[in-house]
Structure formats: C-alpha cells, structure tokens
Amino acid sequence: MLHLTECPRDAMQGWPTFIPTTQKTAYLNALLRVGFDTLDFGSFVSPKAIPQLADTAQVLAGLDLKQSATRLLAIVANLRGAETAARYPQIRYIGFPLSVSETFQQRNTNKSIREALDDVARMQELCARTGQQQVVYLSMGFGNPYGDPWSPEILGEFTQKLDALAVGIVALSDTIGASVPATIAPPFRELTVAFPHIEFGAHLHTTPGTWREKVQAAYEAGCRRFDGALGGYGGCPMATDELTGNMPTERLIEFATEAGEDLQLNMGALAEAQVLNQGIFAAEPLPLAPSPKERGN
C-alpha cells in the first residue's frame, strides 16, 4: 500500500512573504479533509532561521483533527525543538533531518553528523516516553553539491546506526533535486531488503520534466512512502540559493492511480485545497491529469 505525506511545511518555509496564520490554518484544515496518510504541517525551529513557520503552535491550535485520520508530522532541528513538539499529543511524528553530507548538516542544524546522531538518540528516547514516533530524513540522500562522499553503502551505514536506535521510519531526501533514477533505485533496492522492518520513504524534489522517472525508480525499487506538496512548491532554503520544487502531489496521485494503488482520497476536498493553494502561492493549481505533451507522447 502506498502512503502519501503532504508537505505544506516544505512548500511554505521558504516563501518570501509571511503567510497569515489564519490562511495557513484554513489551508491545513482543507488538507486534513483530503485523507492523506500524513500531513507535514509545521516545524519547531528557530524563528530566525525559518520565520515563515514561527506560528506553528498557533496554527496547531486551530486545526480540526476530529474528522480526520491523517497523522501530523512536525520537523525539528534539535532536541529543544523535539521537546517542544513532544508537548503536543496531537503530533504523531517528529521529523529530524540527518544529513549524510557533513557540510549540509552544519548548514542546516549547526552541528556535526556525530552531534546530530546524538540528538537522534535522545529524541528517540523522548518519543518512547511520549508515545510519538521519530521520522529521520537522510538529507542529501541522493548526492550533494559540496563534494562530500555519497554512495548507497554510506546510506546503508547511516541506516544501520538508526536501526540500532530503533528508528522505524527513514526517508531518503533529495533536498536539492539532484536525484536521477540511477541514484534513486539502488539505495531503495538494497535498503528495503537489508532492513525489511523499517519503513523507507522518498522525499524527492524535481523539475516538471523529470518527476515520473524519479517516482517510478523509487516505486519499482520497493519504496511505498512518498512525500509531495500540492503544486510542487517549496524547497530547502538552507541548501542552496535557488530552490528546486517539491514533488507535486498531483503527480504522485496520478502515478499511484496508474499503478493500481487505492489511496482512498477525497477528491472533492483535494480540489478545494487546490483553490486555497492557489490563493497562497498565486499560481494555477496543477491538473490532476497531465497533457499528452507532458507524457512525452
């Protein structure tokens, strides 16, 4: 079964003008009605680093969770952020970006990989006490622009360390849109066999013309957890000056439908969410089916 995580947090975090709290809340409530498996809704990080999401606690207070089975995920950058997220039992998942690139780990969290792994261990202990679950994102999971070492074997070494800490969900994260099928398929193919008890996800960034080959490579290699953002907006402002957009959720839905995956989504609610998405990002929402030209026919 394919699990979709909708990531409005990733879409909003680098947006240049502040999105009002009421507008964020209305949008997230619309997304909760769609029926996604998980909603990556906000983050508990320094407002100096990500001012757009400084109102995450206020947004959370306005979410209507009673009629939704969607689980909430919040991103943190350190143990302090995880402790804040742990105060809210509504949050099921606490996500932490652990980079396989030493350079990016420093840029993103001002810590070394060794220090970040120490944080992962303490956050795992925290989640065990609160009944929440940690999701570790292996950022720069398909290569990096800094010349730091990368290989499927390195991803395996990181996963071995996470497995020893009993981390149950690991998402390989593109971060900058560097992934291609040749770097996507081998890690998933190897990791899903070596660690069958871990749920592996794909957080891919893409350009409009390369989305299908990326999703197909991950899916055929065994990945069944995918992150996306309506309209393909977003990117990591800590990685490069120019952002490469998220995997469009519309395209993930299209691919899943073609693959025979029953996502059980409320398509009417999705259309309503697209309208709100347009109001926030001032662009036309993507159609749910591509044109023949987009298919390459």
From TrEMBL:
Keywords: Lyase, Metal-binding
Superkingdom, taxonomy of origin: Bacteria
Pyruvate carboxyltransferase domain mapped to chain residues: 1-267
UniProt xrefs under InterPro entries: Aldolase_TIM, HMGL, PYR_CT
Gene Ontology annotations of biological process type: ketone body biosynthetic process; L-leucine catabolic process
Family in the record: Belongs to the HMG-CoA lyase family.
Name this protein carries in UniProt: Hydroxymethylglutaryl-CoA lyase
Species this chain originates from: Hymenobacter telluris
